[in-house]
Structures are given as C-alpha cells and as structure tokens.
Design goal:
250 residues, alpha+beta, 2 domains, four-stranded antiparallel sheet, two-stranded antiparallel ribbon, 7 helices, 8 strands, 21% strand
C-alpha cells in the first residue's frame, strides 16, 4: 500500500470502525508526514486470546541518535474505537537487530510511554504519537543492530581482560632465557611419563622388600609361621584372626 494513500481495503476496514471519518482523517494526517508508514489490515491477537482484524501503521520512523539518523521499525495498531482509545505500539526488530529494553519498551517490544498512557482525543492523535516516539527513541534507542551488540560485548570483554592483566605481574617483562616454551603434552609423551612412573613404583617396592627382608631374616619368618600367628595367602603374610594384629610389611 502506498504510504500517503488509503486503498479500497483500508476504506473497507474503516467501515467497521465506530468513528470511521475521524479515524481516516487521523491516519491520512500521519502517513502524509511519515511516508515510510503504510496502513495495513491484519489480525491482532489480544492477551485474553480473542482476535480481531484491525488497521495498523507499519514501517519505519526516522530517529536521530548522537548525530546519526536511524530508521526504527514500528507497528501502530489502531483500535476500532479510535481515536477515543489509545493505539498499541510495538517496535519490530529485523533479523540483524535485538530489543534493548528500557523504561519505554519492554523485552517483547511493547511500547509504554506517557503519550499513550495519557491519551485523550482531540489533544492526542497519531501524528503527535509518532513525533513523541521519535523524541523518546532518540533519547533511549529501543533497538540495536547485532554488529553493535557484538562490538559492545567485545569491548566489555577487552576491558575485563585489561583490568585483570593490570592486577597481575607482566610475565613478558621477566627474563626467560634458556626456558623452553610451555606446550601441552601429547598422548605419546603422557604414556612415556606413565611408564617411567610405574617403573619407579616397582623399583621402590623392590627396595622396600630388600629392606624388610634384612630386618626379618627368613628363619625368623619361619618361626613366626610355626607359632601359627601368620598365614601365607597368595604369597602374602597375614595375621591369624584370633591373634593380636601386628603390623608386618607384605
């Protein structure tokens, strides 16, 4: 639909409005000033589950933010009791945008501003509403592009890493002559280290065995066994259950 004209579909939809002439005039006045908005007839679903075919103004409005102009996509739903009941306004982020919730817009894109809360005809109309939206969106933009969001996250991460590095010594300033670079050991290296460890364990066990063999010669061991204080189970010396436990290396 052309931005500054009312089609037959719109005229037919307006015939279902209680104040069709006033609503038509209000719509024409708004789209004549903001030509990127176009009237459309679509089905609106209310919070209680009911649905109704309503007119809306769908498109973008120019918003100046920090010296740059941005086209903010919105949709203004016009009730069939317009202009005696306030419209419903939503921001409509595209695929490369996300909603920045603030005091004027919630996370679902629903716009809640004083102009809507204080709506009263004839002091309030669609043109005044759009002008108010441009003002508040210029103060607090409701949408950001994904590239801006990514840059902001990167900046926050960089600032965090910078603050952490400031609290730690700068290892790059330490002398590192003769030190090998730190690397993550591979599987083959890990296996070699494990084999060396097991070999050391076996050597330690053999050394302990020789040590205790020197303390308890074989004839003393045979005497202990003759007293039936010990049993040999799977080659290990163990105390009989009816004897007082005695620490003895196995």
């Amino acid at each position: 639909m052309a931005g500054s004209s009312v089609t037959d579909e719109t005229k037919q939809a307006l015939s279902q409005y209680k104040y069709a002439d006033i609503a038509k005039r209000d719509i024409m006045n708004a789209i004549s000033q903001f030509k990127d908005l176009r009237p459309e007839l679509e089905r609106f679903y209310f919070g209680d589950g009911t649905k109704k075919n309503l007119l809306n103004l769908n498109g973008t409005i120019p918003v100046n933010y920090e010296g740059n102009e941005y086209n903010i996509p919105i949709i203004v739903w016009i009730l069939d009791t317009h202009p005696y009941n306030s419209p419903m306004v939503y921001v409509k982020p595209s695929n490369n945008m996300y909603i920045k919730a603030n005091r004027n817009v919630d996370s679902n894109g629903n716009v809640n501003i004083p102009y809507l809360r204080d709506w009263r005809y004839p002091q309030s109309d669609l043109l005044g509403l759009i002008q108010f939206l441009i003002k508040v969106f210029g103060e607090e933009p409701p949408l950001y592009s994904s590239s801006v969001a990514s840059q902001q996250r990167h900046q926050v991460q960089s600032e965090h890493l910078s603050s952490v590095s400031d609290e730690r010594p700068n290892i790059s300033s330490f002398p590192v002559t003769g030190l090998a670079p730190l690397t993550t050991p591979g599987l083959e290296d890990i296996e070699k280290r494990l084999m060396r460890f097991l070999k050391l364990v076996r050597l330690s066990r053999d050394a302990l065995q020789i040590f205790f063999d020197d303390i308890f010669p074989e004839h003393e061991l045979q005497n202990m066994l003759a007293d039936k204080k010990y049993l040999i189970v799977n080659g290990e010396k163990r105390v009989q259950k009816d004897q007082i436990p005695v620490l003895y290396p196995g």
